[in-house]
Amino acid sequence: MLKAAPQSGKRHTRRGCAPVTLSVTAIAWAVAMAGSAAANADETKTDDSENIVVTAQKREQKLSDVSASVSAVSGKFIQQQQVQSLSTLSNYVPNFTYTKESDVDIITIRGLGTAGGDTLESSVGVYVDGVYLPKARDAMFPLYDLDHVEVLRGPQGALFGKNTIAGVINIETARPTDYWTGYVQASYGSYASTEETAVLSGPLSPVLSMRVAAYHRQSDGYIENETPDHYDGGGYNTNAGRLTLDLHPNSQFKLTGKLEFLDDKELGVGRELQYIGPKDLANPAFQGIPSGQLYRQISNQTGLFDVDNTQGPQAWLSALNASYRFDSGYTLSATAGYSHFDNRISYADALPINTIVQNDPMTLATKNIEIRLASPDDKPFRFITGFYADQTTLNYTGYSALNFASVGNAIQSALLARGIPAALLPNAAGLAAANTVVTPGNGFSENSHSWALFGEASYRFQPAWTIVGGLRFSQDSVSMNQYFNPTDANGFALGSVASLSSVLPKPNALVAPGLTIAQLLSKTYTGVYNTIFSPAGTPAINQSETEDSVTPSVRLEYRPRPATLLYGVVQTGFKQGGYAPGTSVSTLNNFGPEKALAFELGTKTQLGPADVSVALFRTQFRDLQVSAINAEGTTDTMNAAGAVSQGIELGTHWHVTSHWSLSADYAYLDAHYTNFDNAPCSIDQLLASKTSVCSQNLSGRPLLNAPPSSFSGTVEYHTTFQPGFEFSAAFTGTYKSSYYTEVSDSSELMADAMPLFDIRIALGRPTQHWTAALLVHNLFNRQGALMGQRPSLVADPSTYMVVPNEPRMIIGQLRYEM
Q1: Which helix (H) or strand (E) covers residue 414, if one does?
Q2: Domains of the chain
Q3: Which of 182-191, 435-444, 615-624 has the lowest mean pLDDT?
């Protein structure tokens, strides 16, 4: 049995991991028992990690034949390097970033992503086995037992449709095999981190194959929380499982069904204070907080705010893929999917003061279907055409709570100055309860549905020349409902007589003829809070809209020799508009679609033993959806900016000798606003301003999450020696230059330039089916910030937090394979 990680003295528990741990053990036993059967099976397994077949253009193609900038990462690399998530994978893929804020994930390709909240669609389309996942947070699926991951850069509007204006992440899981095989891989590393994967695959009958995979990972976290009995930051506890069935009754028809489950918890606060401004430093609650020291924090709240941070989805994902190849060579295929995400969050700031807490905010259900007809591949004229439809339902079902005790303190001070006896006013606990605002405008539901017709045709008009044209018509509709019902911590309407009566020692005491103390406080509180929050009973907002879009594309391909491809691409992209709910008042941000026009020139060629790729690109964005300051001083999402993303991407993969190989990828990016004249102020501007409301012009300034330089390279050595041993060593270096992670252009709120190095040394004996490896991530223990963020409800605009990167991780791996 695979052993659990040792428990520490803090609250690190394996809640809910028993079923998947048992599944991992059961599959491991099955793998071992099936070993003799596998020995008699036909050995058809090959390492095709360097000849990945991708579907970037809705057809199976070798990467070198795709006329687009695509990075493909093999499942073998992901497994060997223990790349557990898209966030980690982004380190290895230039011009791809994955930024985690408190409760929002932002996926960015070539400097374009969507920030602003989980209600917004991502600018990067994420697909898992052909099933579309509309929100960035849905991409938290762990990466295990995969065939490969494709990163398509640039708009993909014609074939993939809406919300692929920046690019596409296409995740393909491993498929069932027609021979019995399987493996068990387990690892243990720094900070009591464990990872276990078990896979069993093979034929159940001559026409039916199956593959079952179970996965578990856990870590105690690497950010020390100095508050006793609270999670350290950066921990996790993930359980996942997948069942895939392949039905292939003949050579023409194939049906693949998949059911996948995920229970992912991120434990502890992954942020820490980097600087405390003078106004906050004067607050006694901030005394003794470690700031400016990476990997140390105090996260200690009381009462309602006494939470241990846990966030992450519980999700089900199903997919059905069918294809039928006619005798004429035409192929009819269909993909249908359903996903259900319960994105749970128990969240508070990494502070010792009661500020904000959230719990269970969002449930998301999506179903989609796509039907395609493709012509034979071996004709001068080829086409693919199809129909697509989806439906998504989003609901905020939990609560948020904000602490406004400072408002209550100010009101009490004013009443005391007017001669109201202190004995009639709330005590500290009552004051906190009456001024903890729960569900401030957080009731929100949204329903959307889309349909599209699309097609792409190519014609090889000369032996070396091919022209390709694509077109997609889409209709996207969305409707929403937002209601307002702010209450206090006791469940009474905010500022009501009932609210104040519940916390007053003598609520019916008269302070004036016909006026009780509860009535006086209610009038006072209501007068203050109605300027901040919509009062209970405010009419709900119901809106809907429908958008039509047409996204064409054209490509020209030239092959002067079989191993060389030159191409030019003009393509368009479209991202639907929508609604961003206000956090407090009865206002709703209604923003329209954004559009992109992209140009790309590239080549893919073979120079001796080296494969080389080059891509020059420029994308112009119109009506870019951004977060900006409105006249009232709150943040809206609106179509307020234009932007340009341009640069160059280079890649090479080189078999130097039979033992040595080298791969290197580099990207230079210039992504900036061309028009953004109402952007939020920077920290320095807020400090210099006499008001808390100001704006600035960021035209010409960089986009968020757009590192100017990014690099990934690996040198690998592989050899065999007697008696039947294999030895390999890989050294990987990655780099991303510094970039802004917050829209205000504040130098404090940036990701640090991050050179990272990994090393993996492995020894195996294939005849006995085992491999042992030592893996070191962040070999030189580089420390820095992945992003900067201002905390909620602090007094000083210069107070900010950072998300630190993982320190050095030393991991031991053991793998048994049939």
Answers
A1: helix 405-417
A2: 18-398+439-489+533-817 (2.40.170.20)
A3: 435-444
